[in-house]
Write the structure tokens for this entry.
Amino acid sequence: MQLNDLLRSAVEAGASDIHLKFGRPPLMRRNGLVTPMENGEELSNADLDGYLRTITSLVPSRYERFNASGDLDIAYTAEGLPRFRVNAFRQRGMISFALRVIPKTVPQFEELGLPPGVRRLAEEHRGLVLVTGATGSGKTTTLAAMIDHINRTRQSHIVTIEDPIEILHPDHKSIVNQREIGLDTEDFGQALRRALRQDPDTILIGELRDAETAQTALQAAESGHLVFSTLHTVDAAETIGRLIEFFPEGKQQLVRSVLAGVLRGIVSQRLLPALPTGRVAAVEVLVANARIADLIREDRADEIPEAIAEGDFFQMQNFTQALIELVLAGRVDREIAANSASNRHDFLVALERAVKADAVRASAVAGEDVDRPAPLRESVAPSAAPTPGLRFSPASG
């Protein structure tokens, strides 16, 4: 099968990713599961080499570079198809591919089910905002929605540095310049240094990979730019620790002080199977305030989860709160949510409290005699006193 026909079939079947490997038929990820495509035949090395030549046809040097290094990150598109983020690599001497389907249009916050705190962070004008999570957790899509919001609401200059460029942003109120590593510039560090001379208001860095990039990003945020980037970390507390660990021990206290001043927020997410089908994101949101800044500056990252749980006024929420809302709304199965929680036992205890509180609220709305309704928001810790944190809308029950 020709590459474009194969990709078209996968997209029509609802695939989010396509995997191509020697000796196996084409496989696709749909609703989180990897399954063989219908009528697929085992792929030969000649098939895979042909696909590689097709993907690199616009930049033939990338084909030679792959043969030299065994790795390739590139974007691919063809007439009638969406864009694809392509990672080609060698395994046991043979070529393999992982292709991610990129949506043609940028989804909005409401379509993605993102909490209000994410929009709040997109409306910042300076500082550092990080979006984190495992590979395939939807970081790119969330960042794209935030950049699109800025693009549609401000007259500004946005510069993105990506490897490769995934979602394309047409100019709306802002002007958007998107630079691809290996095509438009050599590496993140060089591109970020040059970006500071390009009169940007907002800078998107595809990923903070090393101390040099992290330091330049902090400097850009400190000098009044709004900087977005990603890290492969599971939650806000780990993100702060990972960012500081980029630097040698002698500089870490200085970095904490700078980070405490420039950090505006962290969005961490996990994708879960949704009911009845599809996937949905559980999102933790940290919005920087004086308490968060003090915890960073004083190296008390272990207290950040508590600060997030108690930060409803600032539109913060932690994973337990996000998971409970998804379960109460009927969007995620209870067991799947429990298995995805940071602490299964604490989640189940908090969920039971939330279910009881929701039942009391529903009874009160129905006009039943309720002497002392339970608070609508409960602490995520099983032994702690109730604290403000969870939001339950009237539709969530």
